[in-house]
What does this fold into?
Amino acid sequence: MDNESNEKTVVSIDDAIEAIGMGPFQRRVLWAAGLCFTADATEVMLLSFLSLTLQSEWGLTDMQTATMTACVFAGSIVGTLFFGFYGDHYGRRPAFLLACALISLFGLATAFATGYPSLVGVRFMVGFGVGGLVVPFDVFAEFLPTSHRGVKLLAIEYFWTAGSLMTPLFAYLTLETSWRIFVVLCAMPCLISGIMGICLVPESPRWLLSMGRHEEAKAILRSAASANGIDPDTLFHANVTLKDEQVESSNFLDLLSSKWRRSTLFLWGTWIGYAVGYYGTILAVTRIFDEDAYDAQDDNGGTPHFNYQAIFISASAEILGLIVVIRTVDSLGRVPSQVMSYLFGGTLLFTLSILSTVTSNSAILTALSFFARAFEMMGSCVTWVSTAEIYTTEVRTTGHASANAMGRTGAFFSPYLVGGNMSMLAVGSIMLAIHLFTAFCAHHLPETKGREIGHTSLDDDDIIADDDKDGNEMSFRYDDGIDGNVKPPSSRRIV
It folds into this structure.
């Protein structure tokens, strides 16, 4: 230790995270952040059940029913923009906890809605909170070593799938009794996530460094090392200094600067298309299997009789999609995985839409819906991972939130596109075109497989602008290791 103290050692944040390794610390963050994904899934998926139930019980029009779903996405559009700014300027942890608090509060308040206007209001605020759930994902990403990032970021999607499966189960258990109990159960995952976040999730050391708060960042890294069974005094002794990552302040307009413009525009296109495709597929499957829901109601209204078996089977396809993409994303790469998934997903949904008009064979339709949702899940998972990797520390939350806002914008139009009186042939044709557009945009994203997600200086405009023209390269600055003396920063191009 004495010998170590005689020399000053500069450590980059990427090298520090790599040295800490993967262990119990990251698993704690995974559970807290993952339950946010469960909450996102339950709060969005419940709409496919709640909208039809209240349409019957309250006598709502088709437009009111679609608006009930769309208002959540409208709230999330505003929320993503707010929380992106908030997370980059005031910290990841406060943004995380505020989002959880809003979803929990207004999710529970939904159970006390007495009419359509109040319901739309509280669901808008739930959506506003849901817009902040991009932050926990970024927090988890910023604590992961590069060597574990691809697979571990995808592991968080298991929590989304859990929410997708829990929602029809909750509906099956409670909707016949009371839809109010149903929405209370769907609010529980976010409440638990918030409690775990308070206890287990610290501030992101990458963000602290970007704010010049080096000692706080070092203290969190020491705590993480200790949690992973590594002696923090050996790894981060007194004379270890974290590399200065302080940068100029960033804002939304930086995403449209020459450095980020090309990547941002194609990323926005990918998110818009993915959201319309993913949520549109869910709503289309619900519509196809619930055609007899209205026939099952009497003239005085009542709870629709959903085909829970078909809905649950199609939702379980997300497990298959997630397993496949976890095993292939690091070998195929982010871009090929997205392109393939969106092309197959669109083709299967188009086929499902066509066949639903000519056959009532439940086995065939269930199989097509199963594989359509599997490919939708694969594409969406990789898009989330790729987005967190494309943007660097100073704009990561703003960039990810803006992309998420674009996705929510696309999702906003999904209930109007899939619901109502539009024929399934028209729905399938439009959805196929959207999937082709999504694959095109994903094809032009930079490949991020195997790259560090460390800080990039805002002064590197020309480097990244040139790389973006190629569509395949990005440049990052980082130090050469954690065990050497002070070294000047070097610029390496990682292909």
